[in-house]
Write a structure and sequence with these properties.
Number of helices: 3
Shape: globular
Radius of gyration: 11 Å
Helix content: 40-55%
Largest sheet: 3 strands, antiparallel
Structural class: alpha+beta
Strand content: 15-25%
Distance between the termini: 31 Å
Strand order of the largest sheet: 1-3-2
């Protein structure tokens, strides 16, 4: 399976999801899913990033 990468340009969104991101590998501005993407997390990150507001 190919590595999947999601980028967020909003550090406050990343910080707001810190508990849900803790078990994933994070790089400089990216989140790596090694065993398959958590689509619920991706959806929530994208919605928060698009709205400009952390939950």
């Amino acid at each position: 399976m190919a590595e999947q990468v999601v980028q967020s340009k909003a550090p406050e969104v990343r910080d707001a999801f810190a508990d849900r991101l803790a078990s994933h590998d994070m790089g400089k501005g990216c989140l790596r899913f090694r065993t398959g993407a958590d689509f619920d997390l991706v959806r929530d990150l994208l919605r928060a990033n698009a709205s400009g507001e952390a939950p």
